[in-house]
Amino acid sequence: MIVVDANLIGYFFMAGENSPLAVQVFAKDPDWYAPLLWQSEVRSIVSKYFHFKDMPLHKAQQIMNEAHDLMIEHERFVSSSVVLELMASSKCTSYDCEYVALAKELNLTLVTFDRDVLRDFPQIAVSPQDFMNI
Q1: Are strands 125-126 and 75-76 parallel, antiparallel or unpaired?
Q2: What pLDDT is attached to residue 64?
Q3: Rounded Cα gap, residues 18 and 28, in angstroms
């Protein structure tokens, strides 16, 4: 069981430079958890592919449906108080801190490409590359 952020989910479902690594992370541990925020953030990623990479609408909808199928039983609410405390103790956004808060709450590792999160929360967050070496 691991917590993953929207970028990892996005790379898992949409081709990009880090997609092979996202697939490897999933192969190693397919039990992914995320705060409910993941949906909005992945929709934002999909919309960029739609607008700037000519992704057809039906493909965007298919990706979101597949992502929902993967994550539906693994979405969790997080405490706003904990998120804000984490935000106040770091340079990370509240969005990023939602993933950190969930990992902290579930006592799990957060696998992320986010450099700020990796820098500010090294006790909780690990890069996908480092996760593959654990």
Answers
A1: unpaired
A2: 98
A3: 16
Beta bridge partners of 125: 110
Mean pLDDT in the chain? 97
Q: Under a CB-based contact definition with an 8 Å cutoff, are residues 115 and 90 in contact? A: no
Q: Which distant-in-sequence residues (6+ apart) come within 8 Å of 18 by Cβ?
A: 7, 11, 113, 128
* pLDDT per position as a tens digit, 74-92: 999 999 999 999 999 999 9
> Which option is the CATH number for 2-132: 3.40.50.1010, 3.40.50.10800, 3.40.50.620, 3.90.1150.10?
3.40.50.1010
Sheet holding 32-35, edge to edge: 75-76, 32-35, 2-4, 109-111, 125-126
Rounded to an integer, what distance in angstroms lies between the CA atom of residue 29 and that of residue 27?
6
The pTM of the full predicted model, rounded to 2 decimals, is 0.95
Contact call for residues 126 and 113 (beta carbons, < 8 A)? no
77 is written with which tokens? 């609410």
State the CB neighbour count (10 A cutoff) for residue 113.
17
